[in-house]
Specification:
Helix content: over 70%
Number of domains: 1
Distance between the termini: 29 Å
Strand content: under 5%
Structural class: mainly alpha
Shape: elongated
Number of strands: 0
Length: about 200
């Protein structure tokens, strides 16, 4: 099956999720700096979630550069990922409106963990379809970043009930390790282009 509709649908869903999230940024009631300062937790939550969604979109886009086809299992795996991403506006708003309280921060981490796990499931489904000698298997063979992210999210959920600052620091740590678009895929694409040139 062609991958075009899956890519277009995913792009649209992520764009809608970001739109919903930004609508949670309400105009302050006052007109001074104090009124803006009261919105700081909501705004910081939005920034963090926007970056997370941007990372997913970026890496999702890169992944489809090396995938050539899809099947029913991949379509469902992709929907599984989009489901968890669609919950990001809810947990973002709850966390921001309650000034990074324990349970909202823990639930935020739980949603991030599930999204990370869903992304991992999607990559495994793609590798299974394309085969062990495929370009996508070569590109995604090293799973250190995925595993590190899942461990950090899990620790963040647990530590939220001790000190939410630790949890937020772990979530920001994951942002930093994924901020650069997946270099594994870019290297695989460069290698493929070099092989085509030498032939």
């Amino acid at each position: 099956m062609s991958k075009g509709r899956l890519e277009a649908f995913s792009d649209a869903v992520i764009a809608i999720i970001i739109t919903i999230m930004v609508l949670e940024l309400h105009v302050p009631e006052g007109t001074d700096w104090v009124a803006l300062r009261e919105l700081a937790p909501t705004f910081l939550s939005y920034v963090l979630s926007f970056i997370f969604l941007g990372i997913y979109w970026n890496n999702h886009h890169h992944m489809w550069q090396v995938a050539t086809t899809v099947n029913g299992k991949i379509l469902w795996a992709n929907l599984h990922l989009l489901f968890w991403l669609s919950l990001v506006p809810f947990v973002t708003g709850w966390m921001g409106e309650h000034n990074f309280a324990r349970l909202p921060v823990a639930l935020y981490g739980a949603v991030l963990w599930m999204a990370g796990f869903a992304y991992y499931v999607l990559t495994r489904a793609l590798v299974t379809l394309h085969g062990p000698d495929s370009l996508i298997e070569t590109a995604l063979r090293n799973k250190l970043k995925e595993r590190t992210s899942l461990v950090a999210y899990a620790l963040g959920v647990l530590l939220a009930f001790v000190n939410t600052s630790f949890s937020l620091a772990l979530y920001v740590f994951v942002v930093f390790i994924w901020l650069i678009p997946d270099p594994r895929i870019e290297k695989a694409l460069t290698s493929m282009d070099a092989n085509k040139t030498t032939k």
